[in-house]
Amino acid sequence: MSRYKSPPMSSGSLFGRPKSHDEATAPRFVVTFLLDCLETYRQRKALAALDDHMLKDIGLTRCDVDAEVSRPFWR
């Protein structure tokens, strides 16, 4: 065992260099985007299941709901 201590390495890659910002955010962006799309799909499905009386209570018409439900899930 050496009596000289090496400097502690950061949590980054080799030689203590920090990881690229893009490496960490790209997977997070993809996962967040997919979860947002899933949530939008779930909400639109629930909205489409409401009857006309419930839609009137929240101030929407069946035409409004049909327009929202027909949009792509990523918008």
Strand residues, percent: under 5%
Q: What is the oligomeric state here?
A: single chain
The dominant shape is: rod-shaped
Distance between the termini: 60 Å
What's the main sheet like? none
Rg estimate, integer Å: 25 Å
Continuous helix count: 3
Give the class from helix and strand content and strand pairing: mainly alpha
Low-confidence stretches are none
Q: Output the helix-strand order.
A: HHH
Rounded mean pLDDT is 82
Helix content: 55-70%
- Tell me the total number of β-strands: 0
Structure description:
By secondary structure, this protein is mostly helical. It is 57% helix and 0% strand. Helix 1 (21-49) packs antiparallel against helix 3 (62-69).
Question: Briefly, what is this?
Answer:
The protein is mainly alpha-helical and 75 residues long.
